[in-house]
Amino acid sequence: MSTALKILVPIKRVIDYAIKPRVNSARTAIETAGVKHSMNPFDELSIEAAVRMRERGTPAVTDILALSVGPPKCVDVLRTAMAMGADRSIHVEISDAEVKEKGELEPLGVAKLLKSVVEKEQRNLVILGKQSIDDDSNQTGQMLAGLLGWGQATQASKIEFEGDNVSVTREVDGGVETLRCPLPMVITTDLRLNEPRYASLPNIMKAKKNKLEKMTLQDFGVDEGRRLKTLKVEEPPARQGGGKVEDVDGMIKKLKELGAI
Amino acid sequence: MRKYKGHTKLVVKPGSTEEVSKVLKYCNDNMLAAVPQGGNSGLVGGSVPVFDEIVINMSRMNKIRDFDEVSGTLVVDAGCILEVADHFLAEKNYIFPLDLGAKGSCQIGGNVATNAGGLRLLRYGSLHGNVLGIEAVLPDGTVMDDLSRLRKNNTGYDIKQLFIGGEGTIGIITGVSIQCPQRSKAGNVAFFGLENFEKVQQAFRAAKGQLSEILSAFELMDGQSQDLVHRVTDKKRPLEGQHPFYCLIETSGSNPDHDSEKLESFLENVMGEEIVSDGVLAQDETQIQSLWSWREGIPECLGHWGGVYKYDLSIPLPELYKLVDDTRERLTSAGLIGDDEKHPVVGVVGYGHMGDSNLHLNVATRRFDKEVENKLEPFVYEWIAKRNGSISAEHGLGLAKKAFIEYSRSKTMIRLMKQIKELYDPNGIMNPYKYI
């Protein structure tokens, strides 16, 4: 009999993947006011992976807990997660004013918080996106595994269970690598892992009855102090259009001009 | 389409209204026929030279001339691509009042000349209302500068309306001024599966009643159209099970919270009343786009096997889908539909703009086949005429529907139209052999 899974899926509310981000006028951050937000796409993969584990049934899944840290609007993505199949969720609320004043939590702060949640809620598997598409840090999963002293498998493209061992295929330069690791562990998800389902209307309705707990950082007693300071945010330089040349000689001349040959 | 093949020896690409005027004057003086051509995305062959007509291609006249951020009035060259204009407007939080599948290649001049309908008509109305002014060149080279930017102008006959949907038969549109609405900040898309066409109508009534001003699209797709899209794209279906009918509902408004609240109570209602059997709600922009692809991708997927017979029809809502059933039955009993090469027809599907009572009846074929055509025509047109529908709702007449206009228009109306044509184009050089 293998251990039943108690899964934690941390998710983040970010600027929608399909929206072009813009730097704010003060050049201190990306403009977020009035911009459509959605669940971080990698986190959708994590939820989908967890729900598929439950659908498979071996090992049994006791429950799937979704968690999000951030402003009040994060409730929207938690509702989506529950409509996709998460059983309940925790919203660790940081007021809009506080986010504005101190900035968002940093990966280390989030990892510390998650560690505390894992202990309180007795989780034995954490599935999280390899990174969030807004700051692209790709650190939280690794830091969490380090803090917990658990095994980790990052950028998973396939997850399989063999008794109490989890075998994770990950895409690396030049091929794939397969890791085997005993529970408890941390897995971060990559794009090829699965194709997330749509939130169906019946499930959206049902999810409204699921438990959504509001908590604060103080409840976990985590030192979430910011260590990084953003000095400046700039748009990447605009791409210069290419030019056409008449013939091969023209091309050679151009390349010489540019010092390429 | 692969249905029309042009035959021309000469294509001219004028760069300005003056050049268009000179070209047309020369054609008129020398009795040379001309066909205006935009993005060539029309479905009835209106922009195709039938014999040796000179093609006047508008692609070089592609500038955005002017935009007034207060009133939202946009003035563009006729050759400006629809998507380019819409992106330009998006930057300024405005939206082009027309949207359609071919937006990446179709040109605004062509859209206006064919009075294209498209996906936003339910919300923003037709080009007859949105176009404020037109600059056009008449067949004798006269430049008709009616590029008004006024919403109200009751001074005499509204001649520009003749050019909207005139399909280039009385002149070439070279510039358009159009009023553009504010772009909505909040957009939602839901996708439903429904049991029968009765329920589709109930869902439509519920959507109009409960979503009212935020409802911006209500699109219908039958089960077979979705099966064919799935066969071609092999994408994951939005809904788990399969349903005889699907609907796509889009809302757009200015306040996301207000819209979500309305939409939620609407969804609860249609699920609770068992009007819809199943459904999904897009959670992000990517899902919105991928749900739309199940509707917008239909025409392209149907062309996968070869040719498609396309009928674009206005039919009173209660009988909208009956035509598809009747046509499918007719072709099935003739033994023309099948899964192998021996049968010319792959499938008969119906989809379209439910909100505008506009059905697209499409017959996907492996090859154009005279027998299939004889079964379809004039059957479809007679069916439509009996119900006082229109044989061409938004695609126009062009070459394909010219012979069938009397199914939708009376003899008197056709005579009046012919008088207009003779008045503006006495030599008959403009886009001949088509329209009326």
Automatic annotation (TrEMBL), chain A:
It is found in: Mitochondrion matrix. Belongs to the ETF beta-subunit/FixA family. SUPFAM superfamilies: Adenine nucleotide alpha hydrolases-like. Keywords: Electron transport, Mitochondrion, Transport. Residues 27-224 form the Electron transfer flavoprotein alpha/beta-subunit N-terminal domain. This is Probable electron transfer flavoprotein subunit beta. The electron transfer flavoprotein serves as a specific electron acceptor for several dehydrogenases, including five acyl-CoA dehydrogenases, glutaryl-CoA and sarcosine dehydrogenase. It transfers the electrons to the main mitochondrial respiratory chain via ETF-ubiquinone oxidoreductase (ETF dehydrogenase). Binds 1 AMP per subunit. Binds 1 FAD per dimer. PROSITE patterns: ETF_BETA. Heterodimer of an alpha and a beta subunit. Its cofactor is AMP; FAD. CDD domains: ETF_beta. InterPro entries: ET-Flavoprotein_bsu_CS, ETF_a/b_N, ETF_b, ETF_beta_N, Rossmann-like_a/b/a_fold.
From TrEMBL, chain B:
The keyword Oxidoreductase applies. The keyword Ligase does not apply. PROSITE patterns: FAD_PCMH (PS51387). InterPro entries: FAD-bd_oxidored_4_C, FAD-bd_PCMH, FAD-bd_PCMH-like_sf, FAD-bd_PCMH_sub2, FAD-linked_Oxase-like_C, FAD-oxidored/transferase_4, Oxid_FAD_bind_N, Vanillyl_alc_oxidase_C-sub2. Its cofactor is FAD. Keywords: FAD, Flavoprotein, Oxidoreductase. Residues 4-183 form the FAD-binding PCMH-type domain. Belongs to the FAD-binding oxidoreductase/transferase type 4 family. This is FAD-binding PCMH-type domain-containing protein. The lineage of its organism: Eukaryota, Fungi, Dikarya, Ascomycota, Pezizomycotina.
